[in-house]
Write a structure and sequence with these properties.
Order of helices and strands: HHHHHHHH
Number of strands: 0
Number of helices: 8
Helix content: over 70%
Radius of gyration: 25 Å
Number of domains: 1
Structural class: mainly alpha
Oligomer: single chain
Distance between the termini: 69 Å
Largest sheet: none
Shape: elongated
Length: 238
Amino acid sequence: MSESQPQLQNYLDPHYITRSNWLRAAVLGANDGILSTTSIAIGVAAASHSKEPIILATLAGLVAGALSMAAGEYVSVSSQTDVEKADIEREQKELEEMPEMELEMLTQIYQERGLKRETAKLVATELTEKDALAAHVRDELGINEISQAKPIQAALVSGASFTFGALLPLFVSIWLPIKNLEYYLYGFGIFFLISLGALAAKTGGSSIVKATVRITFWGTIAMGITALVGYLFDVTVG
């Protein structure tokens, strides 16, 4: 293998942006699973003298949260898909009714990206001859295979990642003693969030430190407020 081949392979490898759709859904689901379920467990543990209410509340939060996350992702991403389809249909109609104007619009787009007028017109003409709709969807609407909404993928990834994230505080609630359980949950919750932030940053090619600080800061605030509510109401459960 020549020295240039490994360098060429790096250029051919998929970029991090190709993971953006499923990675966003996975991080959102796992973060919400860890944060919301840990917060529920902390709140109940702060006002409980037995494990049963804590485990029951955590398990209920896991099931409800996973279903809600999957349904919410499917509905929201489907709305984006509907908008994309409507724009594509509109673009198809405009291409049929005013092809010259659409060709000029495509030419101007390429000019704005740095091509000379003659080159932009040539590129626009050749792409229009090959597949006019595809050219406009990609360059005018900004829709491509990477950015295109995928409702089912988002729903499955979010639901599965939420379940995984929520299982972590559930296991802590089951295995660790009731005494000072809220502190155990808080500590493990922060650890889980740090791990998630580092994993997400590594997968997405971003700064691990920045990601972990961000996710830990907001997670600490959320869990701290939840624990405080449990103490303030001082409701004895179990």
